[in-house]
Amino acid sequence: MPHRSSSWPAWTMDALEFLRSVGGVARVGLLRGHGFTPSSVRRIAGAYQPRKGIWALPSADTEYLSALTNNGQLTCASAAVRYGLWLKTKPNKIHLATRHNRGRGFVRHGGLRVGSEALLPLASVEDTVIHALTCLAEVDAISVAQSAMTRFGIARHVLESELTAKYFGVARKRLAMADGLSESVPEISARLLFESEGLSFKRQVGIEGVGRVDILIDGWLIVEINGYQFHSSRSAWRKDMGRLNAAQVRGYHVLSYAPEQIWNSQEHVMAQIRGLLARGRDGRRG
């Protein structure tokens, strides 16, 4: 997890240890600020300057190196990965926040609004979310925003205050959809799919004798979205089977899907759901 504070432990470390602790690359100003002169860095075997004002190790983190040599900071999807935020699609290009239009080979974002206290070339969680809301596909944008508010306690009003301009309309809509009910990227994907298909459903519904279910359609069709790591143990698997059996005994119908089915087999998923809905709760068509 990246450092979110500019403070540094009180123990003494040498220049090599410090460089390694910040990803193997740092600006001269950061090194000086922590008591390391260029001469002390120059004595490190293999240390080099990829550009003036920056020192790096051969093992430097390639994204941090790219960020510093382009005078930018990781943001959007690239920073989301570093912070452990939810993403369906990992970025195939680095996302950088810069105040200039130079350089290429990366997705460029504007300057930072909130700023960052990190020792690393990494945008704040708040800026990461703001950039994601304006850049990424809908499911990823909502997922990044939701996980940032859940994991880091980012206040919704802070994000909203940075998205007041008229051209942020889409971003504001996506932020509003990060309502905390969906608990994973696959659940957010299922929500978007079912909304686009015009289904009437509720999320995270508590049912007496059953517990909480992911999605309840038309008050009687339960849809559960379970990843391959969903059951942490055999006892957890037995508990879940018992829960779904209890639902069926109470007259509910149950469909369970893996994330890959929600993402890659949407026609098949919808055909099954619409088939059950057409037959009705009592199983008779019409």
From TrEMBL:
Q: Which residues form the DUF559 domain?
A: 197-274
Q: Which segments does the entry list as coiled coil?
A: none
Enumerate the Pfam families for this protein.
Answer: DUF559
Q: Which domain of life is it from?
A: Bacteria
Q: Which InterPro entries match?
A: DUF559, Restrct_endonuc-II-like
Q: Which Gene3D superfamilies match?
A: VSR Endonuclease (3.40.960.10)
Name assigned to this protein: DUF559 domain-containing protein
Q: Which organism is it from?
A: Paenarthrobacter nitroguajacolicus
